[in-house]
Amino acid sequence: MSFELSLNTGTTPNLTLEEAIRHTAEAGLSHIGLWRHLLVDGAEAAAKAVSAAGLSVSSLCRGGFLTASDAAGQAAALTENRRAIEEAAALGTGELIMVVGGLPAAAHVLGGAGDRGDKDVTAARGRVADRLAELVPYAAEHRVRLVLEALHPMYAADRAVLSTLDQALDLAAPHPASAVGVVVDTFHVWWDPSLSRAIARAGTEGRLAGYQVCDFNLPIANDALKSRGMMGDGYVDFASISRAVAEAGYTGPVEVEIFNEDINNQDAAITLQTMKERYAQLVLPSLQGAGSLV
Amino acid sequence: MSFELSLNTGTTPNLTLEEAIRHTAEAGLSHIGLWRHLLVDGAEAAAKAVSAAGLSVSSLCRGGFLTASDAAGQAAALTENRRAIEEAAALGTGELIMVVGGLPAAAHVLGGAGDRGDKDVTAARGRVADRLAELVPYAAEHRVRLVLEALHPMYAADRAVLSTLDQALDLAAPHPASAVGVVVDTFHVWWDPSLSRAIARAGTEGRLAGYQVCDFNLPIANDALKSRGMMGDGYVDFASISRAVAEAGYTGPVEVEIFNEDINNQDAAITLQTMKERYAQLVLPSLQGAGSLV
């Protein structure tokens, strides 16, 4: 099977792990993408529950936050990411999504520590590369791929100094494709004038490790993180991006990850039903159409 | 004189043209960047008032909105932009800032007409290139440079399908550098991993036509357009961008353009005083330091 729809639990933040698994299975899906905070009884227990429901884990969200400029912050990030790698391995997913972190000057926005004067984005990117190099051997040992996620530039200050797919591929380049991949999230990259070329490059380089779909809504939500929308409700052209992803050789699960106040708080069964319909209508035909050409 | 500070009237939206001119002159500035809606008595009258106060116009904001997919919308855009070119010429500024427009699907967000189903960003970019080619001869005749502005990708859907400086330079490439230039606005481009290389390219290609400074604030404002901040209040590293701009050979005026609810509504004299101080502290030293090296 190709292009199997997966619920990323960021879409249903009010559900426990058990509830999310149940809803996903009841909706007839085969995959679920898990956030780490749901692993309250440990990754092994979660793996058993997922498997018992006949599901597979498409990815674990998330590792990252690698931009600390002080030794203590860097050591803490390595410890935390090694734990995330172990959890991904235990869950039987090869894919650990990495949100690389923002500027030290903006760390306080997400409740962290950091140097309020440090706005050097180039230096922050350098530290991401350094920490990544330190994590790769541990990930490879555990047969887990660190999957770099380019975030929309509106999050460059506080969440990720990694803003484009090409930049993610450049960051991945020194490492084996089996250890460092990239994910295409439509919300984050739809605007990029180099997108179709970069997706093709990700395919050629063997690094296309995930495809996440959701829409880009306007107006931008009061909490900017929650501007993501159900496919079809915003301004993303899913046909062209999906075609490019399939033409690049991707056949894996497709996660729906939507942070959106209304969707997050509605009945999860409605969310799952709607995302199945929209996926079938707006995304899957272009994935399959392209697939038949290659 | 190089790097002269200029008030872009977007920073003081409550002032009439006369008031903006008076405040700018009283603050000891030499330049003012005008928005078209201030030209209520025509461009010639505005030119006289600016000149009588001993000021020069650094740029006219703005032309653009070139993405209409229907013939009537395209004709209207050409008419409107020809008028803007005439006004820029009358004002004695060679620089007409161009915000190219968003997707037809999002035109309604800014009160325009458009096809709610048309989310094809590649096609929209193609229409921008087509309209630009139609406007260039008229701009050249009037000795006005069409100055392409890459907008932050958070505005890609509704305001500009032009999101990076490299993309602006690619769009400009078919035309003479005297007729099509680019502007660097720190808010819009600070996050771009290709920024320093793209600024150098703009210099090499003779297209660096303007430098606008303001900060990138967090959280993103409820009206996302108003997330711009006074230099130093947000997350932009003005030193590195300013150095790159000066090293690329730019010596022209530097506009401060801030859409921000608090700043826009405070006493304009305070705004001008603060922007002078922050410019002297955070921007000018890096422009001058780099300038001495070239």
Top keywords for this entry?
10 strands; alpha/beta; 10 helices; homodimer; globular; TIM Barrel; two-stranded antiparallel sheet; 294 residues
Task: Describe what this molecule looks like in 3D.
- The structure is a homodimer of 294-residue chains.
- With 294 residues, the first copy, chain A, is an alpha/beta fold.
- The first copy, chain A, has one domain (5-258, 265-291): TIM Barrel, CATH 3.20.20.
- Chain A has helices at residues 17-26, 43-52, 71-91, 121-141, 165-172, 186-189, 195-204, 238-247, 261-265, 268-291, and strands spanning 5-8, 31-35, 56-64, 95-99, 145-149, 180-185, 208-213, 215-216, 228-229, 254-256.
- Chain A has an 8-stranded parallel β-barrel with strand order 1-2-3-4-5-6-7-10, surrounded by 7 helices.
- In chain A, α5 (165-172) links the parallel β5 and β6 (180-185).
- The first copy, chain A, is globular, with a radius of gyration of 18 Å.
